[in-house]
Write a structure and sequence with these properties.
The protein is α+β, with helices and mostly antiparallel strands and about 120 residues long. About 25% of the residues lie in helices and about 35% in strands. The protein is built from one helix and eight strands, in the order αββββββββ. Strands 1, 4, 5, 6, 7 and 8 form a six-stranded antiparallel sheet that branches. β5 and β6 form a beta hairpin. The longest helix is centred in the N-terminal third of the chain and has 29 residues. The radius of gyration is 19 Å and the shape is globular. The N and C termini lie far apart (about 55 Å). About 20% of the residues are buried.
């Protein structure tokens, strides 16, 4: 009986990573997700971010999307909702990332790469 219970427990543990991976895949397919790298940012409601360098505000969360304007270095913007898992980019770091933040800057609503901003409040 002990061997059976131990085997059942181990089999159950083996399924945990599979279940977590399935949930992550489902989130990615269904829409916006939260970046683990940016878990300390306020994701619900609104917040304020400052541009680390000048960055294009995009219509969608991808660098191939139309640029709606520019958020200059040092400017602040209001961020809303959740960080979005979108198209990859190399802005502001040289490394490839794919997390975007929805913002409003001087009446322009769009997306900027999260690595180009710093949370102010």
């Amino acid at each position: 009986m002990k061997k059976y219970l131990a085997g059942t427990a181990l089999a159950g543990l083996a399924l945990i990573p599979l279940m977590a991976a399935t949930a992550t895949s489902a989130q990615a397919a269904s829409g916006p997700t939260t970046s683990p790298a940016h878990a300390s940012t306020r994701l619900a409601g609104s917040c304020t971010v400052r541009a680390k360098e000048s960055v294009n505000i995009r219509e969608r969360a991808t660098s191939s999307s139309d640029a709606l304007g520019v958020m200059p270095q040092g400017a602040t913007a209001t961020c809303y909702g959740h960080i979005v898992d979108g198209g990859s980019y190399t802005a502001c770091t040289g490394s490839s990332y794919h997390y975007w933040m929805p913002i409003t800057y001087k009446g322009t609503y769009g997306y900027v790469p999260t690595t180009c901003t710093k949370l102010v409040s």
